[in-house]
Amino acid sequence: MKSHIPIERELAQQLITLECALLKPNVRASAQMLDNLLADEFIEFSATGKCFDKQHVLTRLPGELMPEFHNQDFDVRLINEGLAQVTYRARLQRDKEPRPQYSNRSSLWRQTEDGWQMVFHQGTPCAEFTLKHK
């Protein structure tokens, strides 16, 4: 894991775990769990070009049909004390779409007194890449 400001391996793994939690069916189905992981001022620029705020995510995700995700090439770096960036590549396959979508993903996580919360997420479409096995 590359970093400009040194980051402890345990913290990097914790942030990757939190990032991946947002892609799990039980978390996506729970407005309460999403509320805990997303900061009140959360904003997302999706790979489709749409912009979402926290309230939109809390009302949309719990009822959304869960796509299949494959994520790889995680990197975590500290921006400053209490603010970290998680980047990775994602392959997303929805049931009704014939072809998967590929994107580069980036999230900003801020440490609060209640733990880490995501304040920003962006998915940028990218070329197809070879999947690595977990």
Automatic annotation (TrEMBL):
Pfam families: DUF4440. InterPro entries: DUF4440, NTF2-like_dom_sf. Residues 17-118 form the DUF4440 domain. It comes from the Bacteria. This is DUF4440 domain-containing protein. It comes from Pseudoalteromonas ulvae.
